[in-house]
Records
---
Amino acid sequence: QVQLVESGGGLVQPGGSLSLACAASGSILSISVMGWYRQAPGKRRELVAEDIIGRSTQYADSVKGRFTIARDNANMLYLQMNSLKPEDTAVYYCNAVNSGRVYWGQGTQVTVSS
């Protein structure tokens, strides 16, 4: 079992920055992938960025050059979001894959509005 808790969401003006954090606990040593997804009202949940542990990172085209995913140890995942746009408004979810099972956090709201 893996538990994920996100933090850092909030309201920011267009062009601003926000940083999200995800704390993982439980069976974290076998996690193979960690990532961030988002879901806007009326839309499907979509991949924002993911870190394939020890291999590579990948980003959605819509956030390339603006968002950065990072891990600083086995249990913390971050998402630095710069140059935010209103279309980035969504609930952001932390995601982890462990032995083929997918785990989700509860989500944190990010609202980009003037």
---
Amino acid sequence: QVQVIESGGGLVQAGGSLRLSCTASGGTFSIYAMGWFRQAPGKEREFVASISWSGSNTAYTDSAKGRFTISRDNAKAKNTVYLQMNGLSVEDAAIYYCAARGEDNDYAPSERYEFPYWGQGTQVTVSS
């Protein structure tokens, strides 16, 4: 069974920064493509960013481009990814979910159905 655990959420003022972390462990794959999604109250869960198993490929939603950076360093911590979020606005406030996918192709998935393993989420609150 794959476990996905997020951390790093919290309260930040508008314009501030937060760094989320996520680790996937267990299962039959040794390494996973991973992604971040978010869900605000009353809204659908939406894609934010993802990274391929090697880290060579990334994908971002338009609103995250230029502000958020997803990264991983498999030499230091395999299956741990980070989401650096800068210039946060109240529109970014949501529960952020990390997801993982056992990967044989080195690409960055961006659809919810492509990720079979999910974490419990971490709350990001942005004050104006």
